[in-house]
Design goal:
Elements: E1 4-9, H1 13-25, E2 31-34, H2 43-46, H3 58-61, H4 77-90, E3 97-98, E4 101-109, E5 114-121, E6 124-135, E7 140-145, E8 159-161, E9 176-180, H5 184-193, E10 199-204, E11 210-213, H6 218-226, H7 229-253, H8 255-269, H9 276-280, E12 292-295, H10 298-305, E13 308-312, E14 315-318, E15 322-325, E16 330-332, E17 335-338, E18 342-344, E19 351-354, E20 357-358, E21 366-367, E22 371-372, E23 378-380, H11 389-410, E24 414-417, E25 426-428, H12 435-438, E26 446-448, H13 459-468, E27 476-479
Organism: Lentzea atacamensis
Cofactor: FAD
Protein name: Cation diffusion facilitator CzcD-associated flavoprotein CzcO
């Protein structure tokens, strides 16, 4: 008998959501949440750099079951963290979290139909057993960010900081700040630091699409004055889901039109005569990489004020007082911030073993975007890259609970995805052009080119697959470990 029915790894937005759905749909099942750090909140507790905020609206990034009541639609980390903590406390989820507990390895036993999970807590190793292992820790390393090699960086006399390790006492008032990068972190830090800093420069190798959006949702806020919070939230959420999906589909179908439209928005908010094409016109199409949003165009406001600037060039080397660029130009700086991305890490770095055989992740295929081929009773939560992360996670959690109910109803204790055609063509696990993804594609699982092995990036398609269609299909094998039942068979209900 396993210690727990479900062991959830990660107490961030995905893990807390998974716990809510599990205890709502299966109140008799036992579960615990393992959190390597000392607080809930995941990303929103970890990152402390200036201006940290969501780049999705909270009506869709928040939980479907808990209305977002704040007037800010694009919200800062403090508000998001308060929302998550309130959710955990309201539903008693916080009492299920075991802090400072990091998963090292998990081994599945088919005869026992459970996982034996090795964890490290306060420097000591111990084991737990569970019927299901649910990984909800996202896909990047929490203990270190990515910083490329920069020649001569040791010569730099100023402060060199990665946003993932932001010093609480950093004093940048009146100082020259150089932010290396052009992604979501960089476009957040620049306008946040600009008012107090002497000057902030964003140095990028390649431009990124930057889309100005309202920080507040006027329709959503108006609805809250007319309707109940629950009703107003539901309507605003549906509106924003539709808006996100239409924007993405338009961009993918008409990339040139989308490019021109984004450029027009940028040019309207930048100073007259600004070299828009040099700094804000990427060589790739919209949504080949994630678009960066800037609430109320704050990045462009900082540029117009003269407190911030953008340079598109490459670093040759660091100097004692800044960086030398390939163009021959030198950028002087007191503080350099390497907003150069994340280190992707699958499933928190844990190793998986099934019946004595180590699971090689690149040999597995993602099933419905939530399980792995050949790996029984293992689920994970990875959100959308083209929309609000939590929209996908919520659907996955619902489907997971439906799967558990189906197994209980039919007397199964094991569910294992099995690929019918091992020679079928495959695609990368994350079909996404970001550099932090491309660096590790050979270390990740893969996905197929047809359902259920294709990881959908369409919310409406996932609503059909994960919420409405039956749980069972020909490539999900159910079984029971007891000797009086066949060890493996197709679902008897088909």
């Amino acid at each position: 008998m396993a210690d727990l029915d479900v062991l959830i790894v990660g107490a961030g937005i995905s893990g807390l959501g998974a716990a809510y759905y599990l205890q709502r749909e299966h109140p008799r099942k036992t579960y615990a949440i393992l959190e390597a750090r000392g607080a809930i909140g995941g990303t929103w507790d970890l990152f402390r750099y200036p201006g940290i905020r969501s780049d999705s609206d909270l009506h869709t990034f928040g939980y479907e079951f808990k209305p977002w009541r704040d007037e800010d639609s694009i919200a800062g980390a403090d508000k998001i963290l308060a929302y998550l903590r309130e959710t955990a406390e309201e539903h008693g989820i916080d009492r299920a979290v075991r802090f400072h507990t990091r998963v090292i390895a998990a081994e599945w036993s088919s005869p026992d139909a459970h996982w034996t999970v090795e964890v490290e807590k306060d420097g000591e190793r111990e084991t737990l057993t569970c019927s299901w292992l649910f990984c909800a820790g996202g896909y990047f390393r929490y203990d270190e960010g990515f910083t490329p090699h920069f020649e001569g960086r040791e010569r730099f006399r100023g402060q060199l900081i990665h946003p993932q390790h932001w010093p609480e006492d950093l004093d940048y008032a009146g100082k020259r700040v150089l932010v290396i990068g052009s992604g979501a972190t960089a476009v957040t830090i620049v306008p946040a630091m600009a008012p107090a800093a002497g000057h902030v420069t964003m140095l990028q190798r390649t431009p990124t699409y930057v889309l100005p959006v309202p920080a507040r949702d006027p329709i959503g806020n108006a609805l809250r004055k007319l309707l109940s919070p629950e009703r107003a939230f539901a309507i605003t959420r549906r509106k924003n889901i539709l808006q996100q999906q239409l924007t993405w589909r338009f961009s993918r179908r008409f990339p040139n039109a989308a490019r021109r439209l984004i450029r027009r928005f940028n040019a309207r908010l930048l100073p007259e005569g600004y070299p828009v094409d040099e700094h804000f016109n990427p060589p790739y199409n919209p949504w080949d990489q994630r678009l960066c949003v800037v609430p109320d165009g704050d990045l462009f406001t900082a540029i117009r004020s003269g407190k911030a600037s953008v340079v598109t060039d490459r670093i040759t080397k660091f100097t004692e007082t800044g960086v030398l660029l390939e163009s021959g130009r030198t950028l002087e700086a007191d503080i350099v911030i390497t907003a150069t991305g994340l280190n992707v890490q699958a499933f928190g770095g844990m190793t998986l073993t099934v019946d004595g055989e180590l699971v090689n992740l690149p040999d597995t295929l993602a099933y419905k975007g939530m399980m792995l081929s050949g790996v029984p009773n293992f689920a994970y939560a990875i959100g959308y890259t083209n929309s609000s992360w939590t929209l996908k996670v919520g659907l996955l959690c619902e489907h997971f609970c439906r799967l558990l109910a189906h197994m209980d109803e039919h007397g199964h204790d094991t569910a294992r995805p099995v690929v019918a055609d091992p020679d079928a063509p495959t695609r990368p696990f994350l079909d996404f052009g970001a550099g932090y993804v491309r660096r590790v594609l050979d270390q990740l699982p893969r996905q197929g080119e047809r359902a259920p092995w294709l990881t959908s990036m369409s919310y409406f398609s996932d609503v059909k697959l994960l919420r409405r269609l039956p749980v069972e299909d020909d490539e999900l094998r159910f079984s029971r470990s007891r000797a009086d039942r066949p060890v493996e068979r197709l679902n008897e209900s088909r």
